[in-house]
Amino acid sequence: MKAVLSGVWIKDRKREEIRDSLRELGKLVEAVGGKALGYVIQKRTKPDPRFYIGEGKARELKEIVKGIGADAVVFDDPLTPSQIRNLEKTVGVKILDRTDLVLEIFSARARSKEAKLQVELAKLTHELPRLYGRGKKLSRLGGRVGTRGPGEQEAEVKRRTIKARIHQIKKELKEVRKMKKHQRKRRIGREKGEEVIRVALVGYTNAGKSTLLQRLTARRTLIADLLFASLDTTTSSRKVNGDIKLIITDTVGFINKLPTELIESFRTTLEEVLEADIILLVADISDDRWLDHIHSVRNVLTELGVKDKPIIYVLNKADRIIEAESEIGSLPHPAFVDGPAVVVSAHRGWNIDSLLMSIVKTAEAGGILRISKIASEQIQG
To answer: For the chain, which domains are there?
Structure first.
């Protein structure tokens, strides 16, 4: 796929913000094996209901696509079925939106049965409204006015099939949720009498969560410089000072404008966040947009219903902006977040002890530990 990217610049947003969003969209195109050839932005008070961009801009886009040899246009926001039809008719190439790309990536990366079910549910939920109106296009063999042509009948059959499959997947995921809840109860039962802190890692995709999990627990996990390298939750544990157990779970990464269908479909996976005592919000501080990424993650957490849960900001990848661990204290980044923050390099192992101390102190302050058993200067793996 050779794609042109397109977005609308609404007056209350900064132009650089739009460009950054389109750069991320370009990475999504690359993640599905495509190439972004360039981008087109139109300044508007609001998206056009028929074309998303204006009709004149759509015709201009047709000439750009033809001139550079693109075979697709990818839009940065969700498109309606009618917008897709109008754009494909006018521009003459395949039209996709951000949700299409993310779903394609998730489909390719899903490994476990649970992840595959969740991705399938998201794709079907995304596809269902796009069937409406498609029947007319298929029905030009038509019948009389007020009757259904064969295309509309076919679309109706497909709608019923999709709805039945959605119902079945939700039923299966409900069973997965029950099983996970039972496993958590059994795990807590085995740990009865131990001091336990449940920790969930959340963050923008490719922020280094899997590397951090491996550094904290010595568990080997998939680590790759990819968007959404892993969709499955991974749980591991470690002891601090020999008698406090940290149970740490890595979750699926987030992006800006994470499709609603995915948030809903991955609720069973993201429930680990709701069960956690403390959240480690991991951010890549070598990225110029790291604060915006934190805000995006906080927005998703709000959508999930995460409230009043302690959050520690883990400002990762310090090794990309300083040369030695001794320079961490000079970095100003913790001052920009609204809570406890620890600058680390999960890759180099820098400042991990300070992170562990922060976890224990937060647990003690929040009454998560029944008895304070640990001296922070004695923390060890």
So the answer is: 2-100 (3.40.50.11060), 110-190 (1.10.287), 195-378 (3.40.50.300)
